[in-house]
Write a structure and sequence with these properties.
CATH topology of chain A: Rossmann fold
CATH class of the largest domain in chain B: Alpha Beta
CATH architecture of the largest domain in chain B: Alpha-Beta Barrel
Largest sheet of chain B: 9 strands, parallel
CATH superfamily of chain A: HUPs
Radius of gyration of chain B: 27 Å
Helix content of chain B: 25-40%
Strand content of chain A: 15-25%
Order of helices and strands of chain A: EEEHEHEHEHEEEEEHEHH
Number of domains of chain A: 1
Oligomer: heterodimer
Distance between the termini of chain B: 61 Å
Shape of chain B: globular
Number of helices of chain B: 22
Strand order of the largest sheet of chain A: 7-11-6-1-4-5-12
Number of helices of chain A: 7
Bound molecules: flavin mononucleotide, iron/sulfur cluster
Strand order of the largest sheet of chain B: 3-13-12-11-10-9-6-4-5
Strand content of chain B: 15-25%
Chain lengths: ~260, ~700
C-alpha cells in the first residue's frame, strides 16, 4: 500500500518583525522550519508501514507544494524514513496559500499516485486554517476523520480515535482508501541519525510542474477562495503594560501581579 | 534586528584633550602575562579588541623602572627602548583598527618584590607589604621622589615616541606608589608629602604635571584612581572625602578620569575591583561614582562588568559616566561594541564573572577566559573569536556525545566551520551538562551564561542539530552513521574519596551517610542528617558550593580541608577573602590543615597536617569533594574494536573536556574549541604547536639603565 503524507515548511516570525508600507514582511525576519504536525503524520505513516506484515510492500511518499524552501523539509522527511519525495512548484503558485487551492494541487498528485491512505497534519502552524486536509478529502471524495489521536490497523480498514470535549473518546472504523488529519502527541516522532540523513541523499525525489499534473494555473487560482491582502501588526491590548526597570524591580512586580491574579 | 535607538549614545565620539575616542567603549587596563616579553601576543590581544570596536585599548600595568619589578607576576615594562619597541606593535595594530592605544604607568613602591632586578624596594614610608615575606623597603627622601618622578617621565616619553595616544598614571587597586602616598594607611610622612589630603596628593599630582609637560599635546593624560577602598578604615580612601578632594585638585591636569573602586593587592580589599559574580552584578560601584561626579567637569570612565547595553546607555544618558570602561566584558567578548553597534545583541558572549582570567595573573600564567576560548590565542595560535575557516574535511558528518561545556563548544565551532552535519546528543533533556548543576549552586546563576550563549549559537547553525533526552550506548554510536565521533561525556566525583593529599581512597567512603556532590545537588542540599561535614581537597568552588547549599537547606555545616584556607584556588580568583569571611560569619565551622583518614559509623578520623595525633569528628552526614574521574567508558568501548569502527565507516573517535581529564570549565571549553579548530589537521587529537616568541640569543642584549 502507498501512504501519501503532505507536508509543509512553515515560516516562524522573529519577535520584533517589521512590515513595510504594503504590509509585506521583511523576509529576513522569517525562519523556515517543518510544520510541527507533519512530524506526527509522517511518524504515523512510518509506524503503519513498519507494523504491517513483512512483504506487504508499503511505500511512504511525502509531498509538498513549495518553492526551494520546501527541499530542506523533504530531505528531513526522507531521513526520518519516507521512501520518496515529491515537490510541486510553478512560479504561478507564488503567493497562493489558500487551503482550497493547495488541496486542488494535492488532489492532482493523489490521483496520479493513487494512495491507499493519506495522512495530513491537522493544521499548519503559520496559516492555521486546519482546512487543507479535509478539503483534499472532499475533492477526492474520500472518507475522512479529522484530529485523530490513535490509529490501529483493522483487517483491511482502520480503527481510529479522536478526543472530544469533556474527556470522551470517539472510536471510528473506516475502510480504505481514506484520509486522516493527525493531531500532535499521537506518537513520538523519531529523530534521524546521521546514517539516515546520508541515506536520504540517495532516495528518489522529484519536482513536478503544474503541467506535469495536467493542471492549469486557472484551475488553482479559481478555486482559491481568498487571498491575503496584507498583514497588520496586532495592536497592544488594553490590558498589556510594559514592566520596566532593573531585574529585581521587574521580578518583584511580576510576583505582585501573579499573586493578585491568583487571589482574584 | 536593528540597534535600539537608546544605545545610539554609546557610539558618540568623546574628545579627550588632544585625542578623540571614536565611541564610548574603553578597554580598561588588564593583565595578560604577556608584558613586553611577548610582543606578538600583547599586540594581537589588544588588536582584536580594537577590531571589535573598542575606541581605546590599554596595556596592563606597566612598570616604569627596574626598582618596580613585579616578578613572578608579569607587568608590561617601559624600562628601556627595547621594551618600547616591543610595545610599539600594539599601538600600531590598534591604530590600524581605528582605536587609541594607552599605557598604564606603574611604580609599585613596597609591593614590588624586585625578584628579578634585585633592587631594594622604596616607598612612601618604611613599609612591609602584606603579600611579601621577610622583606621590607626604605623610605624615599626628596631626591628619591624626584628620581621616581623622572622614571615616570622617561617611560611616558618612550610610550609617546612609539605611538601611544594615552598615558595613564595609575594609583588603583591599592598596588601603586601614587595611591600609597594618598592613603594614610601607607603614608606616615610628616613632610610636605604627608599629613593633609593636599600633601598626600602632592607626589601624584606633581608626577602627572611633569608627564603632561613632557608629552605635551601628543598624548591624552589620565589618572586611574581608586575612588573608594570599600571598607570603613579611615586610613583608606572614601569617595566623598579623599577621592572627591583629590579629583578637585587634579582636575586641571587630566583629560579624563579613569575611576574604579576597591582593590586587588591588599588582603582586605582583594577582589572588590574585579568583583566576582557570586558577590555582585553589573555596576556595583555606582554609588561611589555618584559621590565623586560633582567634583569634575572632565569625562569619567568607569568599570562595572558592563555587558548589558541598557545599563551602559542609562549610565551615560544620566550624565553619571561618559566612557564605558571594561576589562572582563572585553575579555569574554572582544567584539562587544560591534555587536551592540549592529544590534546583534543575542550574539554577545557575556562574561560570567568567574575571574579565571584574573587567576592567571596571580599564577604568572598567560591569560585565558572561560567564555572566550580564543582569548590569548590570537597571536600564538592565530585564532579569531568571530572568524572560522571552512574545514577541509567539511563533507564529514560528526557526532558529538555530551552537551556540556566541551561538547557544546566543539559542536558550535564545527558548525561555524561548515561541517556538513553535526549532531550534538545528550541524555539529559536540556543543554549544559555539568553547567546545569553548577549554575544552580548558590550565587553562581550567572555561570549559566556558558550554556545560554552556546544554546543561541547552536540554534542558528543550520548544519548542527541538538538532540536531547537521548542516551547513546556504544552500539548506537557505532550505527549512528557519523564519520567523526567526539566523546564529551564529562566526569563524576569520586565516591571512594580518592584524593590528592594521600593518593588513596578513604576507608568507609561507601557508608550510606557519605555523599558525592552530585547526590547533594540532586536534592538541593536536603540530605538526611542535621550536621554535615564536607571534606574538600579540590580547593575551588565545589566545596564552597556544597557548604552554601547545605546551609541553605538548614544544615549545620563543617568543612575540613588540608589547605591552610578554605578554597585556596579562590585566592587567585579574588573570591577567597569574602568566601572565608562570609561562611564563617554564617556559622560554618572551617577546619583547615587537616586530612580525613577514615570514616566509620561512629565518626570520622583525621589528623592535623603537621601533627601525628589523631583527631575525631562527629557528623550525621559526609560529603566528599576530593576529585573527579572521567566518564570515559563509552570512549574506551568504542576504541576497543578498531575493525568495527572501520566497518561502520567511523574514521576517528576523540574525547574532550572532563571526559579526557577533569579540569576547569575554561579548559573544557578550550578543549572542545581546539579540537574543532584543528579537526582537519593530520592528527587532530594532538594540538598543533603554537608560536612561542623566544628571544634571539644572537642579538646583543641592551643593558638595563639605571639599575645601580
Ligand atoms: C585579568 C585582569 C587583570 C587586571 N589587571 C589590571 C591592571 O593591570 N591594571 C589595572 O589598573 N587594573 C587591572 N584590572 C582591573 C580592571 O581594570 C577593572 O578595574 C576590573 O576588572 C573591573 O572591571 P570589569 O568589571 O570591567 O572587569 C584587571 C582585571 C582583570 C580581570
Ligand atoms: S574568565 Fe570569567 S570573569 Fe574573566 S572574562 Fe572570562 S568569563 Fe569573565
Amino acid at each position: 500500500m502507498k501512504i501519501l503524507v503532505p507536508v509543509k515548511q512553515v515560516a516562524s516570525i522573529d519577535g520584533d518583525f517589521t512590515l513595510d508600507g504594503a504590509g509585506e514582511l521583511d523576509p529576513r525576519a522569517l525562519h523556515w522550519q517543518a510544520n510541527e504536525w507533519d512530524a506526527f503524520s509522517l511518524e504515523a505513516a512510518l509506524q503503519l508501514a513498519e507494523s504491517s506484515s513483512a512483504g506487504e510492500g508499503f511505500e511512504v511518499v511525502v509531498v509538498t507544494v513549495a518553492d526551494e524552501h520546501g527541499e530542506e523539509g523533504l530531505r528531513a522527511c526522507l531521513a526520518m524514513g519516507a521512501d520518496r519525495a515529491l515537490r510541486v512548484w510553478d512560479p504561478a503558485l507564488a503567493g497562493v496559500d489558500d487551503p482550497l487551492a493547495i488541496a486542488a494541487v494535492l488532489a492532482a498528485v493523489a490521483r496520479r499516485e493513487d494512495p491507499g491512505l493519506i495522512l495530513c497534519g491537522v493544521q499548519s502552524s503559520d496559516s492555521a486554517n486546519a482546512a487543507t486536509g479535509v478539503a483534499l478529502a472532499g475533492l477526492l471524495e474520500l472518507p475522512r476523520v479529522a484530529v485523530v489521536t490513535a490509529i490501529e490497523q483493522d483487517g483491511g480498514g482502520l480503527t481510529v480515535q479522536r478526543e472530544l470535549d469533556g474527556g470522551a473518546v470517539e472510536v471510528l472504523r473506516l475502510s480504505l482508501p481514506a484520509l486522516l488529519t493527525i493531531q500532535t502527541g499521537i506518537n513520538e516522532p523519531r529523530r534521524a541519525n546521521l546514517r539516515a540523513i546520508k541515506l536520504a541523499r540517495s532516495k528518489p525525489s522529484a519536482t513536478l510542474a503544474l503541467s506535469d499534473l495536467d493542471l492549469d494555473v486557472s484551475d488553482v487560482r479559481e478555486v482559491a477562495g481568498a487571498r491575503t491582502v496584507r498583514l497588520l501588526e496586532r495592536g497592544r491590548g488594553e490590558g498589556a503594560s510594559m514592566i520596566e526597570g532593573p531585574a529585581e524591580a521587574i521580578a518583584g512586580r511580576i510576583v505582585e501581579l501573579v499573586t493578585r491574579e491568583l487571589r482574584a | 534586528m536593528a540597534r535600539d535607538p537608546r544605545h545610539d549614545i554609546l557610539f558618540e565620539p568623546v574628545p579627550i584633550g588632544p585625542k578623540t575616542l571614536r565611541n564610548r567603549f574603553y578597554q580598561s587596563p588588564h593583565c595578560t602575562s604577556f608584558g613586553a616579553e611577548l610582543p606578538g601576543a600583547q599586540a594581537h590581544i589588544r588588536a582584536m579588541k580594537a577590531e571589535g570596536g573598542w575606541a581605546a585599548v590599554n596595556t596592563e600595568f606597566c612598570s616604569v623602572h627596574p626598582s618596580s619589578d613585579s616578578r613572578p607576576l608579569v607587568s608590561a615594562r617601559l624600562w628601556d627602548d627595547d621594551d618600547a619597541r616591543n610595545l610599539a606593535r600594539m599601538a600600531e595594530l590598534a591604530h590600524e583598527h581605528g582605536a587609541l592605544a594607552g599605557v598604564e604607568l606603574w611604580h609599585g613602591g613596597c609591593v614590588a618584590g624586585n625578584l628579578e632586578s634585585r633592587m631594594p624596594a622604596r616607598s612612601v614610608s618604611q613599609l612591609t607589604d602584606d603579600g611579601l615575606y621577610a622583606t621590607s623597603c626604605y623610605e624615599l627622601d626628596k631626591a628619591g621622589i624626584r628620581e621616581i618622578q623622572g622614571y615616570y617621565v622617561a617611560a611616558a616619553r618612550r610610550a609617546r615616541d612609539v605611538g601611544f595616544d594615552m598615558i595613564n598614571i595609575e594609583g588603583a587597586e591599592c598596588g601603586a606608589l601614587p595611591q600609597h602616598f594618598l592613603m594614610s594607611k601607607f603614608n606616615h610622612r610628616t613632610d610636605e608629602y604627608g599629613g593633609s589630603v593636599e600633601n598626600r596628593a602632592r607626589f601624584w599630582l606633581e608626577t602627572v604635571e611633569q608627564v603632561r609637560e613632557a608629552v605635551g599635546d601628543d598624548c591624552a593624560v589620565t589618572i586611574r584612581l581608586c575612588v573608594d577602598t570599600l571598607n570603613d578604615d579611615p586610613r583608606g580612601i572614601r569617595a566623598a572625602e579623599e577621592a572627591y578632594r583629590f579629583i578637585e585638585l587634579g582636575d586641571h591636569l587630566v583629560d579624563f578620569w579613569d575611576l574604579q573602586g576597591g582593590g586587588w593587592a591588599a588582603a582586605e580589599w582583594a577582589g572588590d575591583d574585579a568583583v566576582a559574580s557570586r558577590f555582585a552584578g553589573e555596576f556595583s560601584h555606582r554609588p561611589y561614582i555618584e559621590a565623586v561626579r560633582p567634583a569634575t567637569k572632565k569625562p569619567i570612565a568607569t568599570v562595572g562588568r558592563f555587558t548589558n547595553p541598557d545599563t551602559m546607555a542609562a549610565a551615560v544618558s544620566s550624565g553619571l559616566i561618559d566612557i564605558v570602561a571594561a576589562a572582563r566584558p572585553s575579555i569574554a567578548d572582544p567584539f562587544l561594541p560591534r555587536k551592540i553597534e549592529q544590534g546583534r545583541y543575542e550574539e554577545i558572549r557575556e562574561c560570567i564573572g568567574c575571574n579565571i582570567c584574573a587567576s592567571r595573573f596571580g599564577l604568572g600564567a598567560p591569560i585565558v577566559c572561560t567564555q572566550n576560548a580564543t582569548l590569548g590565542e590570537e597571536f600564538r595560535r592565530g585564532w579569531h573569536p568571530e572568524r572560522f575557516t571552512v574545514a577541509s574535511n567539511h563533507d564529514k558528518s560528526v557526532l558529538v556525545v555530551g552537551a556540556g561545556p566541551a561538547g557544546m563548544e566543539c559542536a558550535m565551532v564545527l558548525g561555524k566551520r561548515s561541517m556538513s552535519a553535526v549532531h550534538l546528543v545528550d541524555e539529559q533533556d536540556a543543554l549544559g551538562g555539568c553547567m546545569r548543576s553548577i549554575s544552580a549552586y548558590p550565587h553562581l546563576g550567572e555561570w549559566g551564561r556558558v550554556t545560554t550563549y552556546r544554546q543561541v549559537q547552536l540554534g542558528k547553525l543550520a548544519s548542527v542539530e541538538v538532540i536531547l533526552g537521548t542516551r547513546l550506548d556504544a552500539e548506537a554510536v557505532l550505527s549512528y552513521g557519523a564519520e567523526i565521533v567526539v566523546i564529551a561525556t564529562g566526569a563524576r566525583w569520586r565516591a571512594d574519596g580518592m584524593n590528592g593529599p594521600t593518593q588513596l581512597p578513604i576507608p568507609g567512603a561507601q557508608l550510606d551517610f557519605v555523599h558525592t556532590p552530585e547526590q547533594v545537588s540532586a536534592v538541593k542540599g536536603a540530605i538526611d542528617g542535621e550536621h554535615v561535614l564536607v571534606y574538600d581537597t579540590d580547593g575551588y568552588f565545589t566545596g564552597v558550593g556544597m557548604a552554601e547549599m547545605l546551609l541553605a537547606a538548614g544544615k549545620r555545616v563543617s568543612v575540613v580541608t588540608p589547605s591552610p584556607n578554605l578554597a585556596p584556588f579562590m585566592f587567585y580568583t579574588g573570591e577567597a577573602f569574602r568566601v572565608n569571611r562570609e561562611l564563617r560569619a554564617q556559622g560554618v565551622e572551617i577546619v583547615t590543615s587537616h586530612v580525613l583518614g577514615e570514616i566509620t559509623p561512629d565518626g570520622l578520623h583525621g589528623q592535623n597536617v603537621w601533627a601525628p595525633d589523631p583527631v575525631h569528628w562527629e557528623a550525621d552526614a559526609v560529603v566528599l569533594v576530593t576529585q573527579r574521574q572521567p566518564c570515559d567508558e563509552l570512549y574506551h568501548e568504542l576504541r576497543a574494536d578498531p575493525d568495527r569502527l572501520a566497518r561502520e565507516g567511523i574514521d576517528s573517535v576523540y574525547r574532550i573536556g572532563d571526559c579526557l581529564a577533569p579540569r576547569t570549565i575554561a579548559e573544557n571549553v578550550f578543549d572542545g574549541h581546539r579540537l574543532a579548530r584543528e579537526i582537519d589537521t593530520a592528527d587532530p587529537a594532538t594540538p598543533l604547536p603554537y608560536i612561542r616568541e623566544l628571544p634571539d640569543v644572537n642579538r646583543q642584549p641592551a643593558a638595563v639603565p639605571g639599575a645601580g
